[in-house]
Write a structure and sequence with these properties.
globular, Alpha-Beta Plaits
Length: 224
Amino acid sequence: MSAIAPMVNHGNIVGTLSLYRTDKVKFTDQEFRHLEIIAGQTAVALDRAPQGEDSEASLFDELTGLPNGYQLYLMFDQIAIDAQRYEYPLALLSYRVEGLAEIRRRYGHLSSNEVLRFLAQHLSNEVRETDILVRYAEDQFMTLHPKMNREKAEALKSRVQDDLDQHQMPIRQGIHISPRASIGIAAFPEEGTKLEDLLSISEWRLNDDQKLRSASKKPLRFPS
């Protein structure tokens, strides 16, 4: 069984994306719609991606292996167009590792890198196939979630923070820390239809969340 979707950019077909199954189970309408979304995203990425030997490296973060912030810009327009056409929400979540500079100062760059890799893997396990996860800055990640409203985004935020707050990550022999993260949410379309607007709102809320968490009864502690 197969499903084939054209990769269309600005009305031009630049290629096709195909999926194949060895069994005789037909692809569902939802699966085919996911394929269409990915095909559209791929067409945009191919059109805008840098050319040359370093083009692949320029789209991915070397430390975590995740797409970088550039890919978020590549994919957003097509996803937003699809969301407006089919009238479904999007949620943009911004994550910042708490105390990363202090972790680096106390335990070194290798330890801070391990914290970033751990968070990247944890978020990878949380996102769905149609979501986008990128490493946006040194201590910051972004996730974009089609068909996720604010209520579901808040539930995701609470679950991620609870899991990270309770996790004890070995940082050195006999020393464990919690790889905590502050999180901000922006909702499409009610809070903006442009990526820049959603990024601004999510980072503003992230900063508020970081202040609230810093003032809570559970401050981030670093073992000696």
